[in-house]
User: Fold this.
Amino acid sequence: MSNKKRVNMNLQWITIVFFTTFILSMTFSYVSTVVMENIHLGIAIFMLIVIILIGVLFDMIAVAIAAVDIEALRAKASMKQKGAKTAIKLAMHADRVSSVCADLVGDVFGILTGSVGVLIALQISNTYDFSLALVTLVVGGVIASLTVTAKALEKQLALKNANEIIYFVGKILEFYKK
Assistant:
């Protein structure tokens, strides 16, 4: 493939990622703002935890795809194990899979946690008459601590179990292809 074609393909990919991220970020932010405005504090906190976990899950896939052994997946495919061929396709496009999982999904959900955190801080401040600045600092600190700790644990897990994780993702995608 010529360098000009590679540059065009990269520009197309970057353009797709840019606009997809822009649209997803706006959509999720709008939906979270509308949903979170009139929701019980306990449910809002639960939703925040789910959002953090989704971001961490996709980050784990991004780390695993970078560490996967494609030969192990080929061995599963040779034994006709469902999902192995899809997992191989993922591994062959590791750069894009990693970008989608870590950058597109992971970062959008990271931004979303900040938006939801601000809404939770506002709700706590208004309900309990606490200083908004103080509540925002505490909520932001809790969100950052939970996210960073979960990602640190997830990275260890992803590196040790990369083949199994990507094979599992391949099985899930295979199931939904039908």
About this structure: Helices lie at 3-37, 41-67, 70-78, 84-92, 94-128, 132-160, 162-177. The radius of gyration is 19 Å. The chain has one domain: 27-177. The mean pLDDT is 92.
